Amino acid sequence: MGQEERVPPSAEEKGKEEDDLGYRLCPDQNKKSQSFLVRSLFTFHNRCQLMLKMTLDTNPYAQLLLEAMKQSGCTVFNDRHFSCENCDGCVSGGFDSATSQIVLCQNNIRHQSHMNRVVTHELIHAFDHCRAHVDWFKNVKHLACSEV
């Protein structure tokens, strides 16, 4: 693939990007919750929920991180702290520090092994947020440490 030619963003666009904090990658994040009946009609959501349950029930890394969070005083509730949503691009998931919620990109996670990796990776961010009170947006060392 060739590289796309990119035009530098204007000051106004740059300000919008900085205020966005990545929410444009998960456009469903700010939408209101849908009823169970409406959600159950969408197979991406069902598949995501089933794969998430499988990961939380069987993956030793996820279980280790959940237990560590519980011991640190940050109990995780599956229906509160995980959200399966449609995302733009090739994003697989993310940790929303404002809501302490892990967003799983249901339209981009197609295999159980991928779900296992994404959940484990995002649980590490959740653990760091809980235990170390990471300053995600102002301290690049905190962010880098959590990514390693």
UniProtKB/TrEMBL annotation:
GO terms for cellular component: mitochondrion. It holds the Pfam family Peptidase_M76. Keywords: Hydrolase, Metal-binding, Metalloprotease, Protease. GO terms for molecular function: metal ion binding; metalloendopeptidase activity. One of its GO terms (biological process) is mitochondrial proton-transporting ATP synthase complex assembly. Its EC number is 3.4.24.-. It comes from the Eukaryota. Residues 1-17 have a biased composition (Basic and acidic residues). InterPro entries: Peptidase_M76_ATP23. The keyword Transferase does not apply. Residues 1-24 are annotated as: Disordered. Transmembrane segments: none annotated. It is an enzyme of class 3 (hydrolase). Belongs to the peptidase M76 family. This is Mitochondrial inner membrane protease ATP23.
